[in-house]
Amino acid sequence: MMQTCPLCASRDTHHYHRDARRDYRQCARCELVFVPPASRLDPTDERAVYDQHENSPDDLGYRRFLSRLFEPLRGRLAPGARGLDFGAGPGPTLSVMFEEAGHPMAIYDPFYAPDRAVFERRYEFITATEVVEHLFEPGRELARLAAMLPQGGWLGLMTKRVASRQAFAGWHYILDPTHVCFFSETSFAWLAGHLGMSVEFPAADVALLQKR
Biological process GO terms, please (predicted)? Predict the structure, then answer.
């Protein structure tokens, strides 16, 4: 069955991998690997997985994990720049780290902080850590976020990247049933070009896109 890429909307996609639970396809244009809609969880089951997460600003290990995005992005921001943490989850932490550094923050999460008024504002930077792999429509969602940034604004993304078909087959990241989109550097390069942004990879799993 033909499947449309949820990032670039190309219909040129092909089989990439299959495991005991689901199929994975890859786009020939942007190289996104994705799970077809029939294999996605419904919202109730999806939230049940997220409810098991125990992230907290008091967890120093979690703060160190987030620092891979926090440190390089903070160094690129003007003092007092306003930000949005998109997909903040049940224990918002990155937003707390930026607020401690002097950056006013808004948060959004479809399950835990569903105030859609945040999309009516503009921000100097937007973050999404361990989020894009969960998005059913990453092309649409990331374009909406980019549109909320001014020229020079930053979109900071953190997700593990596809390395090769062989590595993918044994990758722990695909075992999470809520992970449905898997980006490579090529995927981010396509996204940046499509959105009129530049992209750099300053740390493991981190992509920083700046609006031209």
Answer: methylation
Kindly state whether residue 3 falls inside one of the protein's structural domains: no
Query: Amino acid letter at 5?
Result: C
Q: Which DSSP letter does residue 150 get? A: P
Domains held by the chain: number: 1
Answer yes or no: is 27 within a domain: yes
Q: Which residues have a Cβ under 8 Å from the Cβ of 35 and sit 6 or more positions away?
A: 22, 23, 24, 25, 179, 180, 181
Digit-by-digit pLDDT tens for the chain (212 residues) are 679 999 999 999 999 999 999 999 999 999 999 999 999 999 999 999 998 887 889 899 999 999 999 999 999 999 999 999 999 999 899 999 999 999 999 999 999 999 999 999 999 999 999 999 999 999 999 999 999 999 999 999 999 999 999 999 999 999 999 999 999 999 999 999 999 999 999 999 999 999 99
Provide the terminal-to-terminal Cα distance of the chain, rounded to the nearest Å.
Answer: 38
Residue 39 in domain: yes
State the virtual CA torsion across 57, 58, 64, 70 in degrees, nearest 10: 20
Host domain of residue 104 = 13-211
Write out the DSSP string of 22-62.
-EEEEETTT--EE--GGGSPPHHHHHHHHTT----TT-HHH
Q: What is the CATH number of the domain that holds 137?
A: 3.40.50.150
SS3 15: strand
Query: DSSP character for 123?
Result: -
